[in-house]
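USER:
I would value a second opinion on how I read folds in token form. Give me a protein, with the fold worked out from its sequence. Write it directly below this note and I will take it from there.

ASSISTANT:
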Amino acid sequence: MPRPGSLPGIQGTAPLGALLLAAAWPDTARASEGIDTGDTAWILISTALVLFMTIPGLALFYGGLVRTKNVLSVLMQCLALTSMVTILWLLFGYSLAFGEGGLIIGPIGQKAILAGITGATAFGSIPEVLFFAFQLTFAIITPALIIGAYAERTKFSAVLLFSGLWLVVVYAPICHMVWGGGLFSQWGTLDFAGGIVVHITAGIAALVACIVIGPRDGYPRRAMPPHNLTMTFTGTAMLWVGWFGFNAGSALGANGDAAMALIVTHISASTATLTWLTIEWLKHGKPSLLGAATGSIAGLAAVTPASGYIGPVGGLVIGLASGAVCWYFATAIKTRFGYDDSLDVFGVHGVGGIIGTVLVAVFAAPALGGNQEGLAVGHQLGVQLGAAGITIVYTAIASFVLLKLVGATVGLRVDENGEALGLDLSEHDEAGYTMADFLRGVRVPEE
């Protein structure tokens, strides 16, 4: 994803030099002419697709995985985070992430409330206000992913406070370093659509959060199966389709890079789905929809950083690797260490993001179908590992400190009675399945 200012729009009559450049390099000419309607149309669609991933996609995916008494709490968290992050992104988040200058973070006031940006201001071949909106959808889904790790026991106020602070302290600087012209960008780090920025940060924060907050009451002694896999499948389908906007949209244009990003995304997701359900089939005798759905998300997460740089072979290998490795982390590793990552955010997004961030250094090479001419695999591998390693350490430390801060102020989790009753009633005084609850003898409290 290009950084701000890398493809400036030029208004008015082009000088002779620009005309000569246009003749030699048509793509550069198009960018220099300002806003392109085809590119703009595609990124408008991509922006809608990525927002669709959080509400309703992620909300339904997570909502189906929790127990009946907590379904509305997950939907509420996704909806509220979408609204809160939008305002924070407008006020200063976009400026911190994409303001020009600074190795770690951008100037807080440079682009605050879209200062100096109008509908006619170009960012490459699209309006900058559209780039703002597209990046906003990434900022929304990243903290929303984390809620899956601490679902069913965390206070709503804690979710909002932690997520808002985390957006500023973790997401904004990592985003700036990778996509905003900062440190990792200057190293030449490859992260096309958010393996580092989105999935590693969310996955590591999720692991830290579920350990600090602690397991759900009864975990792992008592089974806590998903209450509605039909809902989870619906969310999976929405996420899969929305991911085309996530990855192909990151080309910031309607072009061949977007087309290749779309198809390798689909290949990786398909391969990971088959890999996960095959392992499950061989190990347990039957494949499950839950396993297939989780595998598909692992493949989508893993291919994200590589999607704009690799070809079909890379998509196949990344899908295969993520399906197998993420399955191992979401089952054997989680069981061995006993942490209650409720909806496997670390095992799927964190591990998947790391896999894709590392493997892009190999499969971006032209010999393996990639498009990075002159890529030195060994050097690029060092760059990828360095950026990922720093991100992991920083995210873990910062998330731990923020969780402790939130715990000391509003508190992190509901009390035992609230958890037993369910967050829908204890936090929101609502029930997702009032009639079903009544038939089971669980009465909804009346005023």
Remarks:
- The first strand starts at residue 122 and ends at 123.
